[in-house]
Design brief:
Structural class: mainly alpha
Radius of gyration: 43 Å
Strand content: under 5%
Largest sheet: none
Order of helices and strands: HHHHH
Shape: elongated
Distance between the termini: 46 Å
Length: 181
């Protein structure tokens, strides 16, 4: 049974319970819209722009709203780019300075470690040559253990610093990625 027929039956059943004045009201058929032969298509346009300046079309629309606005935006962004370039240059100089100082510090530390090793090794040799083998062994062993310990601790510290730098870089990459919709 079609929807229209069911609706008619319901209307007639309700009309039978109504007063005679209401029964005389002509039956009103609901209007059914005509089926259209036109096909509607939807198109979604997605534009993405990345950069310090808006795209040219948007700058032109800004200029229509307020003449000269596009030029002000371009000059403002040029100043921002100049400041960013200066900041990057300054940061690179600082990083270069820090790298140079760290290399120099490492070289001085190695030279001093070598001198200390030679001095303590010489003392251990002199003690051993003069019949103090136990003292020479203790001094030589302590020297060897201390040098190995400093070497291992230095490597561990360097590994930890590298791991923290990698973590910071990964976090910066995650923050810079655009969120997907």
């Amino acid at each position: 049974m079609s929807r229209r027929n069911r609706r008619r039956k319901r209307t007639k059943a309700i009309a039978g319970t109504l007063s005679p004045a209401l029964r005389s009201t002509p039956e009103v058929e609901p209007e059914v819209p005509a089926v259209s032969s036109v096909l509607t298509a939807e198109m979604l346009l997605y534009r993405h722009h990345s950069g310090p300046l808006p795209p040219p079309e948007q700058l032109a629309s800004y200029d229509k709203v307020l003449p000269g606005l596009a030029e002000r935006i371009v000059h403002r962004d040029e100043r921002i780019l100049t400041m960013a370039e200066k900041q990057a240059e300054h940061r690179q100089k600082l990083e270069s300075f820090v790298i140079t100082r760290n290399a120099r510090s490492a070289a001085v530390g190695q030279a001093l470690a070598f001198i200390i090793a030679i001095v303590f090794g010489s003392f251990a040799f002199v003690l051993g040559s003069n019949g103090h083998e136990l003292s020479a062994s203790v001094l030589g062993g302590a020297e060897l253990v201390s040098l190995v310990t400093v070497f291992i601790l230095g490597r561990r510290k360097q590994s930890q610093e590298n791991a923290s730098k990698r973590k910071e870089q990964n976090q910066a990459i995650v923050k810079s990625k655009p969120e997907s919709a």
